[in-house]
């Protein structure tokens, strides 16, 4: 009985510690572990890392974490700052079609200042950039995104 109680307590403590931890990226693609359960490949994430660093990191942060304290707070000009794309903001609520549309058209239609990249990036580069920032999404966020028909 005492062993069962100790085991149950240990499990409860471990579970609560995991639940209290901040979301971490799955690391599947970045750490070289198979990303077989995701739409993108390890190669796309690697290519996306370079695209993101050059085209996106200045506004969205090197690891897509965002660069402002509150991405929901309008700036002085009335626009919204660039949101984090690492799964901690709202990007995971949008399917691939919308993510690609925002990259192509920019952020103005959504109240932001992001420039349009339709003519600045190839299709391959756009998909790689999405793969890169989605690689920071933990499995729970990615699973929720899939359930919301994210790959549509």
General description of the model:
The structure is a single chain. The protein is mainly α. It has one domain: Cytochrome c-like domain (Cytochrome Bc1 Complex, Chain D, domain 2, Orthogonal Bundle), CATH 1.10.760. 45% of the residues lie in helices and 0% in strands. It contains six helices and no strands. Helix 2 packs across helix 5. The protein is globular, with a radius of gyration of 18 Å. The N and C termini lie far apart (51 Å).
Helix count from the secondary structure assignment: 6
Largest sheet: none
| Shape call | globular
Number of domains: 1
From the 3D structure, determine the CATH topology. Answer: Cytochrome Bc1 Complex, Chain D, domain 2
Helix content: 40-55%
The N- to C-terminal Cα distance equals: 51 Å
Based on the coordinates given, report the CATH architecture: Orthogonal Bundle
* Series of H and E elements: HHHHHH
Radius of gyration: 18 Å
Alpha-beta classification: mainly alpha
Q: What is the CATH level 1 assignment?
A: Mainly Alpha
Unreliable stretches: 1-34
Q: What's the multimeric state?
A: single chain
> What portion of residues belong to β-strands?
under 5%
The average pLDDT is 82
Topology, number of strands: 0
């Amino acid at each position: 009985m005492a062993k069962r109680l100790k085991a149950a307590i240990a499990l409860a403590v471990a579970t609560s510690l995991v639940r209290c931890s901040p979301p971490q990226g799955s690391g599947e693609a970045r750490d070289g572990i198979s990303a077989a359960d995701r739409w993108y490949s390890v190669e796309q994430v690697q290519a996306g890392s370079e695209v993101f660093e050059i085209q996106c990191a200045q506004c969205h942060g090197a690891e897509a974490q965002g660069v402002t304290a509150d991405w929901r707070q309008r700036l002085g000009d009335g626009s919204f700052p660039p949101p984090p794309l690492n799964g901690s903001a709202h990007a995971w609520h949008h399917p691939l079609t919308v993510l690609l549309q925002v990259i192509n058209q920019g952020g103005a239609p959504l109240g932001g200042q992001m420039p349009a990249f339709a003519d600045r990036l190839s299709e391959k580069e756009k998909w790689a950039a999405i793969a890169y920032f989605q690689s920071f999404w933990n499995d729970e966020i990615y699973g929720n995104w899939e359930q919301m028909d994210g790959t549509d």
